[in-house]
């Protein structure tokens, strides 16, 4: 899971020309990143696993920061320059999953050892009706059923393996606060013996949609997060639902299918 950063809610201005770090509202997708959203490159590199345990006081700070930027560029399929250029900034400003891209120390093959995965939905978003919210979640989970051979079952009482909630800011029993509109859209917990394992939290400061309307595709985000709940980490390939950045994609990619089959074979 994510390393805890209390500064999650206080992104600060960092470089010399903050204006160029803003996303100009334009395309439908960019509209969801508010223009007040500020990028802190170092914070981003730490938060998503590219630069652990390094700060400005570290002797090899400059070198390790350059390495971290290279790792980010490599992971994201950008030109590897080690510089924070426009391409890097633009991608860092894209709405994304709150989970790390590079995870150190997580058991490689963490998975569920049951064939039926129970889930519950205890809070809803105001953006879509409750029945559409249930439909969107079910649609996403069903897509994983074929390649994983798992079955998902919604339960309304008792403790589900996957507890799905819409939350804002700092939320009950979770150390990872949401960050308002834009930025982090959701996070999820990998399979383990931990009580929170499998759970998914959606940032309700985002605007969600199902099928039509404006906003972010709930099916797409639920599909991505449930991949984490089942044990998949981020993928750096384009066209895969497990890529860390929001694309609106509502299908699994070829590598998603390969990876989930390998995990649940
Ligand atoms: C599944 O089984 C493996 C091997 O016994 C174990 O290490 C792992 O913790 C189990 N997974 C869960 C989520 O309980």
UniProtKB/TrEMBL annotation:
Zn(2+) 2 binds at residues 97, 224, 228, 234, 242. It comes from Euprymna scolopes. The active site is at residue 225. PANTHER family: MATRIX METALLOPROTEINASE, MATRIX METALLOPROTEINASE 1, ISOFORM C-RELATED. GO terms for molecular function: metalloendopeptidase activity; zinc ion binding. GO terms for cellular component: extracellular matrix; extracellular space. Ca(2+) 3 binds at residues 179-180, 203, 206. This is Light organ matrix metalloproteinase 1. Residues 1-16 form the signal peptide. Residues 108-265 form the Peptidase metallopeptidase domain. Its cofactor is Ca(2+); Zn(2+).
């Amino acid at each position: 899971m994510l390393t805890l950063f209390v500064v999650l809610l206080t992104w600060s201005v960092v470089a010399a020309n903050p204006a160029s770090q803003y996303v100009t509202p334009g395309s439908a997708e960019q509209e969801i990143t508010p223009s007040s959203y500020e990028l802190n490159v170092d914070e981003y590199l730490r938060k998503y696993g590219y630069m652990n345990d390094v700060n400005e006081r570290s002797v090899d700070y400059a070198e390790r920061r350059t390495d971290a930027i290279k790792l980010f560029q490599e992971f994201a399929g950008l030109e590897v320059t080690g510089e924070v250029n426009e391409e890097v900034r633009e991608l860092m400003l894209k709405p994304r999953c709150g989970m790390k891209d590079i995870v150190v120390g997580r058991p490689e093959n963490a998975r569920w050892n049951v064939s039926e995965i129970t889930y519950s939905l205890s809070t809803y978003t105001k953006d879509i009706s409750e029945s559409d919210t249930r439909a969107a979640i079910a649609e996403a989970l069903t897509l994983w059923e074929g390649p994983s051979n798992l079955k998902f079952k919604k339960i309304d009482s008792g403790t589900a393996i996957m507890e799905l909630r819409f939350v804002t800011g700092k939320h009950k029993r979770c150390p990872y606060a949401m960050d308002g509109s834009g930025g982090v859209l959701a996070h999820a917990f990998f399979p383990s013996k931990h009580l929170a394992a499998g759970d998914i939290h959606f940032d309700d400061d985002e605007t969600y949609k199902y099928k039509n309307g404006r906003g972010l595709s709930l099916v797409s985000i639920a599909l991505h997060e449930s991949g984490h709940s089942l044990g998949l980490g981020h993928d750096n390939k384009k066209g895969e639902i497990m890529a860390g950045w929001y694309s609106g994609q509502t299908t699994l990619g070829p590598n998603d299918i390969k990876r989930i089959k390998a995990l649940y074979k």
